[in-house]
Amino acid sequence: MKIVVLAGGLSSERAVSLVTGTSVCRALRENGHRAILVDLYLGLETVPQELETLFDAADGLCPDAAIAVQAPDLEAVRKSRADQSERLFGPHVLELCALSDIVFLGLHGRDGEDGRVQAAFDLLGIRYTGGGYLASGLAMDKAMTKRMMDSAGIPTPRWQLLHYTEGEIDGLADTLPMPCVVKTTTGGSSLGVFLPEDRAALRQALRQVLPYGGEVLVEERIYGRELTVGVLGDRALPAVEILPAEKDFDYAAKYQAGGARELCPAPITPEQQAEAGRLALLLHRTLGLEVYSRTDFLLDGEGRFWCLEINSLPGMTAASLVPKEAAAVGLTYNQLCEEIVRRSYVLKRRG
């Protein structure tokens, strides 16, 4: 197949996306596909007269991608685009995607997981991997996901949605229940998530989350073991337990060597594994997601699972969680990428 692996974009998870995209692109080329990596936002400024010849480009146009300790400078990314266009799709991106047999969405965060790219592709008749536009949008919005969890009877920490101004922060910091978690409703990779230990830290968290824009979610703080469960097709994969080297599993802990230990399969009972898998599948289906996803949980001291959120396009670097779960059931990384492509290719997006 001719496959565009779409990555990058203008999300705060841009660097993670480029590493995902590079890993996937090389795996698909090893599988025999004519795969190339294309940056959603930067696109390709210079292209040959026959665009299709790019599918045979050396190393699939893959960059030397890496994840730094800090999130990327998106303003610098904007300035680096030669045409300085306001369009999300960079030069020649849509043309290349239209020439492909399918687009593998290696995007993370706002650009790609919120359903906008999927909706555009649906309108243009372009095949793509993973869930559709509506399910992706619901999964990206943590408040909407919470509402869906409540309606489906999926246990999740008590929560409330806030809209406030700078002048209301002091009053909120004095009255919100503690301990709590403060997070943006559309963040990812632990960006825009704060775990205040006292009211002074809560005041600071409420101030720091405001620049992320939109609504702010405040939820009850549950203490327990951090687990995540992938779904592939119609089956749940083995749970992974995440043991951060530091107290919190933040952006740096997720992506830097030594930031965390990951135990796969997680050391939980068969009954607990079955329950975690049941809940992950239930949320995946409740939201209408397709092909694959990953759901994050806390397991408290009394053995109860608390569902936190779901990722409709989970990380797909070779060291990411879903590939580790797939390996635990005998799927190599290349086989996992192939299954995602094959399952997505046959989906009927619009009737």
Tags for this model:
Rossmann fold, 351 residues, 3 domains, 13 helices, 4-stranded antiparallel β-sheet, 13 strands, Dna Ligase, domain 1, 6-stranded antiparallel β-sheet, single chain, D-amino Acid Aminotransferase, Chain A, domain 1, alpha+beta, globular, 19% strand
Helix and strand arrangement:
Layout: E1 2-7, H1 14-30, E2 34-39, H2 74-80, H3 93-99, E3 102-105, H4 110-113, H5 116-124, H6 133-140, H7 142-152, E4 159-162, H8 169-175, E5 180-184, E6 193-194, H9 199-209, E7 216-220, E8 224-232, E9 235-236, E10 240-244, H10 251-255, E11 260-263, H11 270-287, E12 292-300, E13 305-311, H12 321-328, H13 333-345
Parallel strand pairs: 1-2, 1-3
Antiparallel strand pairs: 4-7, 5-6, 5-7, 8-9, 8-10, 8-12, 10-11, 12-13
- Structural class category: alpha+beta
Please identify the top-level CATH class of the largest domain. Alpha Beta
CATH topology of the largest domain: Rossmann fold
CATH architecture of the largest domain: 3-Layer(aba) Sandwich
Instruction: Tell me the overall shape.
Output: globular
- Number of separate structural domains: 3
End-to-end CA span = 24 Å
The share of residues in helices is 25-40%
- The radius of gyration over CA amounts to 20 Å
Count of individual helical segments: 13
- List unreliable stretches of 5+ residues: 249-253
Number of strands: 13
Major sheet summary line: 6 strands, antiparallel
**Mean pLDDT over the residues:** 92
Order of helices and strands: EHEHHEHHHHEHEEHEEEEHEHEEHH
Strand content: 15-25%
